[in-house]
Amino acid sequence: MSKSVPYGVTAVVLTVVLCTIHTVYGSDEGEGKALYEEKCMICHGQNGKGDGPAAAALSPPPKDFNRPEFWNQKDVDQVIINQVKKGKGAMPAFSLSDDEIKAIIGFMSKTFKK
Ligand code: HEC
Question: 29-112 maps to which CATH number?
Answer without folding.
Answer: 1.10.760.10
